[in-house]
Amino acid sequence: MDGLKAINVYVVATDDGLTLIDGGWAIPEARELLDTSLRSIGSGFGDIRRFLVTHVHRDHYTMARQLGTEHGIPVALGADERPALDTLLNAGELTENPFSRVLVSAGALELAEQWDQVGGDLPDPALWAHPDQWLDGDQEIRVGTRTLDAVHTPGHTPGHFVFADRAAELLFAGDHVLPTITPSIGFTFPPVPQPLGDFMASLTKVRALPDLRILPAHGPVAPSSHARVDELLAFHESRLTQSLAGLAAGPVTAYDVAGTLGWTRHERAFDTLDVTNQGMASMETKAHLELLVARGQATREETPAGVLFAAVGRG
Description:
By secondary structure, the protein is of the alpha/beta class. Helix content is 36%, strand content 20%. The protein folds into two domains: 10-232, Metallo-beta-lactamase, Chain A; 243-311, no CATH class.
């Protein structure tokens, strides 16, 4: 449905039972695989004592919430994910796709209409209920004999957390530090003012931790959090430079600038992307342009056709 092939769910075994980092997506195939995997180590759903969920996206949260409800397992989630959950739980009151206004502000009016036309069932409250514990700010969490540093890392989502096991030199990185791709930025609701600024600040925060082995939510284990964070920061600085160059024609929208950029590791042209990915690309480009404004390198003007950006010194 969205190109997702797998999510990595990590199991920390203790004398009292299991703690799972993320839960997976609550679809039958994933549930069966998780059950089989736990049985392969002599355990089952009844042995899970807690879920520590990195962020609210469905491929991380919904299985944890489903199993938590069924088996009385506490689920912990970042406190800044509450607005997104509240929106989902009140989806019946929505009159438009929650991303439509973000797409309109990015100048992607036609995409906003197409996203609005995509139907679907209302969110299942059983999968999107509030967690049992809100993680509010950096804190230490005891997991058996281990101590995990729960580190708030907003950017990909406002309430994203990573969990660092300094003694074992491991970083349960969620979608914050991925080994081969960059997480989507700006694809959140309700929107926040500076998602890219938040993400880069969070990367710098993780860079200040010891160099740790990355246990990501997607992709293979990677050897160095420092090396990968440096790569991600360099990528976004390059992208900011490219986005600023895209303002050379004068006041333009994020959608216009997105059309000048290459996408994915294969540098695909914008017009070869499907409607969903064109929308995500437009929102991510807007996040880059908003950071250029915050840095004093660009200006912005809100219009009915979307926010118009211009390089400083241009009209």
